[in-house]
Structures are given as C-alpha cells and as structure tokens.
Amino acid sequence: LRIGIFDSGIGGLTVFHAIRRAMPSHDLLYLGDTARIPYGTRSPLTVQRYSFRVASWLYDQGVDALVIACNTATTHALDGLAAAGERVGLPVFGVIEPGVEAALAASRGGGIGVIGTPGTITGAAYQNALRRRRPDLPVYGVACPLFVSLVEEGWLRGEVPRLVAETYLGHLRGKIETLILGCTHYPLLREVIGEVLPGVSLVDSAESTAHALGDRFPAAPTPMGQRGTTRFAVTDNVERFQQVGALFLGEVPSPVSWVDLPAAHAPFEPPGGEP
Ligand code: DGL
Fold it and tell me: How far apart are CA 171 and CA 150, in angstroms?
C-alpha cells in the first residue's frame, strides 16, 4: 500500500514515525505544507482550503489511504476530506478519534485536559468527541500557541519552556488526571509538561493513529522482511524541513523534494465562501 500523510509542516513527522514503526512494509509519502504553516491560527475555511489542496496533490500521487497528521486540519477538514474520499474509495484518517480512544483507555474516571492550537481548541473536536463518549467526565481545553514556536526553536527544556508551560497549564493541577497532547509538536515538550503536571498521564495521538491504521491495513508478509519506501515533499524550504525535522524523526528526513501544489480538484473540491 502507498499511504499519504500530511501536516501543515514538520510536526506530522511524529505521526509518520509511529506509522513507519507500526507498518514498515508499506510505502509512505509525507507532505509538509511548509509554505502555509501555521494552520493553527487560521480560520476553519482557510484550513479546509489548504487541506483540500494538499489532498488533491496526494491523490494525484496515487495514494491508497490518506492520513491527516495535523490536529488543526483534522479538526476543520476531516469531515469534508472523508466525504470526498468516500466518493473515490479513498479512506481518510485523522488523529483525533485515536487520541480520544487512547485517553479514555488511560482514564481512571478523573478530569481530562486537551491542549492544542487555538484552531483545535476553539473547533472543539476533541472536547466534543470526549463528551459524546463520557458525558460524566470534566473536560478542559487549553490553547497553547507558543509551544509550537518553542519546539521549532529547539527550546525543549529549561526555564523558558517551563515558565510558558506553567502559565498555560498550572491552573489544571489537581483538576485532571489525563492530558491529551493535541498538537503534533507537543510530544517534544513532554518533559516540561510532566514537571508542571506531575502524575498526569500524557497521551499523544501519533501512536494510537498508527495502530488504528495498522488494524485497518494489516501488513501482508513480505519476502525477507522487505521494507517499504519513504519519501518526503514540502511546499517551502527543504533545508529547514530537514534541519528541524530531525528533532521530530530522530534522523534527517530524506529524500525531500519541493513541490508546487496544484489547485484543489475533484474529488477534493474546496468549500466556497469567505473565511
Ligand atoms: N500541525 C499543527 C497541529 O497539529 C501545529 C502547527 C500549526 O499550527 O500548523 O495542530
């Protein structure tokens, strides 16, 4: 199988990495829309248009499944992309449902926090999915926009990230027992988040998304454990993607090519209107 994975930029490499480990024999194609990052502060309609454009390109590459590795794009565009994909038999996966499943599996009945970009938190897809399944649990959503810049600067430990984490999350101490890291970048800040919220289980949707995909597409046995191919594409600045991407992937992503996305096209016709 050829699996297309996309994100607004670099962070989706955490999801790519988990899929690679869970499904090593499949071919993986990753697109980072680095020319349009961040998605997290943009309007829902703009994120939908960007996502439909990326999906059109991946569809042209002949992928057999599409994974939205970005939480913000999953929040705003999963429903539209899944409906379009269904018309042509292309399954579309997001990161939110698997993250919610993992949080509920870890839950012992206490409060659940969700942190993400402003778009993810105001879009409330995580909070709604949690409340639908467990209306009895208190759910707290907090936007932590500065976390993305900290991670991209490589400021993962020390005073500054700790102070930022304390400012965003200190008020959740004692109220939650599980925290969903609802943004591709946040797993890299696990250590400081854990210091601010000791004893809270931190859930990251990358692993659970990879498992959901693995359940749907069990790997056929391959001769001599043959591995699938991996390829990366970005819409801007290959060098920066490789440099910052190494933080997320644990190795320099390669090979990476620059692509100019086509206009969105069938079956991924973008919604009209003004953002
Ligand atoms: N990938 C985005 C997410 O998971 C974070 C970066 C952005 O704002 O584009 O929501």
Answer: 21
Strand partners, 4: 29, 66
pLDDT tens figures, 178-204:
999 999 999 999 999 999 999 999 999
Specify the residue with its C-alpha closest to ligand 1, atom 2: 70
Ligand 1 site, CB within 6 A: 7-9, 11, 37-40, 70-72, 116-117, 120, 148, 183-185
- Point out which residues pair with 201 in neighbouring strands: 178
Overall average pLDDT of the 169-173 stretch: 98
> What is the pLDDT, as a whole number, of residue 272?
87
Examine the residue annotation and report whether 144 is marked as an active-site residue of this protein.
Answer: no
Q: What's the pTM?
A: 0.96
